[in-house]
Structures are given as C-alpha cells and as structure tokens.
Amino acid sequence: MAVSGTEPVEPRPLEPRPVGIDELLERVRADYRRVEAQEAYDAARTGETLLVDIRYAALRERDGVIPGALVIERNELEWRLDPQGSHKAPEATGHDIQVVVICNEGYASSLAAASLHQLGLHRATDLVGGFQAWKSAGLPVTPGQA
Description:
Layout: H1 21-29, H2 37-45, E1 49-53, H3 57-63, E2 70-71, H4 77-81, E3 98-102, H5 108-118, E4 124-126, H6 130-136
Parallel strand pairs: 1-2, 1-3, 3-4
C-alpha cells in the first residue's frame, strides 16, 4: 500500500541462495566435457590441444612438469589466455583454441575452465584428476627442482 504522496515500494528481489563448492563444481562441470589424462596427452601430441598448467611453483618444483605444457599460474590465467587481452600469451591465438587446464588434482582447474568459457574460449576444459592423474597414468613428466 502506498502512502499518500510517495511511490509504491517494490519488493526487493530475492538474493540468490549461497551454494557450496561441491554444488558449484557440479554446475560448472555440467557446461563442458572434461578429459582424461590419456586423451589430453594424445590431443596435445597432435598439436590440436594446448595444455595449461596452473599449479603454483612449489608443486611444479616438487612433482615436476608436463613437457610442452604452458605454465600460467592461476592468478594470471584469464589475462594470459584472453585472445583480446593486452597481456595475452603468444599461444592465445583465438577463441577457438582447445585448452586443457591442469591443476594438481582437478578441482581448481574446473573453476578455471569455467572462467575461460566466460571469456569466450568455448573449447576450454580441464583434466580429470589433474596433474596427479597424469603422473599416475605414467605419462611424461619432467622432474622438478625439489
């Protein structure tokens, strides 16, 4: 009911309900197909896929790196892979590149892939199980410095 001389008060829209990380991961992963280690390896060998390691330096030093993977720490990922960005990596050639994001165990990489989708990199995905799955599959790893 409006009081004389005032505009009616519109009800406030409901705030979205908070979601937990498990639900968030489920939601973002529903928007793309994740890849297994062998599939990522095969695609990278043919040159059709760019592997991007977002693990921080201490993990790379401890566990090693995937030969040929582009190392971009998570906090720089969007700036380095945005094909329109002023800080893009030379590998960020367009929105159609196939990118497989790799974190340590396959959780942070899912959120990173979703963020890349928001930038228009519609073929971005992530590695199920992350670097640890790659290593467990016996795929090539260059030893770290630790």
